[in-house]
Amino acid sequence: MTCGLLVTTGAYPVPAQTEMIEDLYPIVPVNGLDLARELRGMARDDQGGDLEGCIAHILRVREIAVTNRRPEEILLE
Length: 77
Hints:
With 77 residues, this protein is an alpha+beta fold.
């Protein structure tokens, strides 16, 4: 199953949360603090604490280019 991430540095307003539930999209909300913690942990575990090296590695090994697509297109793959 394909799952999307909705990342924000702020909060998720109630209407956005309601829409995610009503539309039945497999979306995981991730706030900026959680994302930063996860990246720091990955850098610590995989790159000896080098955050810039960790991000560079993620970008280098990523196979799929980021594109603007509707959720339906991704879910139907």
